Amino acid sequence: MKPENLLIExxxxxxxIVKIARPKALNALNTQTLQELKEVLSAEAANxxxxxxxxxxxxxxxxxxGADIAEMKDMSTSQGVQxxxxxxEVTKLLELMPKPTIAAVNGYALGGGTELAIxxxxxxxxxxxxxxxxxxALGIIPGFGATLRLSKFVGLPRAKELIFSGRKLKADxxxxxxxxxxxxxxxxxxxxxxxxxxxIALQSHSAVAKAKDLxxxxxxxxxxxxxxxxxxxxxxRLFGSPDQREGMSxxxxxxxxAFQGLARG
Length: 265
What we know:
Largest sheet: 6 strands, mixed
CATH superfamily: 2-enoyl-CoA Hydratase, Chain A, domain 1
Shape: globular
Strand order of the largest sheet: 1-2-3-5-7-10
CATH topology: 2-enoyl-CoA Hydratase, Chain A, domain 1
Number of helices: 11
CATH architecture: Alpha-Beta Complex
Helix content: 40-55%
Number of domains: 1
Number of strands: 10
CATH class: Alpha Beta
Radius of gyration: 18 Å
């Protein structure tokens, strides 16, 4: 079936563009969108005609503004764990598929948006892009892999600072910290991202796939699945806590959260 929340496009031969397309929700990730991404990415990983995959957001405002808080607000612990595990299935497909994956970040990439971006092989951003892991302001933690992957880009102390504070980064600061490879003006951003994809697509596909596999080997050898499962369990245990209920209710109601509960587990 044709996905409802994704746009799939072909650029030059061998280049596949996957766009998150929920403009009214700033491309936020709900369960349906994650499931559609899982199916599309699985198909593209096996598609011999796809040599490079570009992940981006539809429109200019957002790449992915985060996970869908309206959907998450009333989740139970078990539902929270399942939601995180689905997010992990998607991020592992981006990270481990035998095709280079480029995150073309065209606007807000917050929470799950940053997590999907750092699951790609590298990030190209417009000068309007904004990154961040603001989950602590909602009474939860990152649940789609940031506790494992973010430190690979910016180092452990910086990753701790960004996750603990929920601070947002503009594109130029994200580049300075090593999160982003390239930053371009909005007017030329998409063409620059596609230009890099074209350059990669011209190379030996088997050689690029083997290089990616070897470069990712460290992640696998140090227990990627074990660490992601621990993150999903910790993420889920925060659902139903006073701070999670207050943080997400405050977000939906567009007011400042008044945290007072103690986090569980």
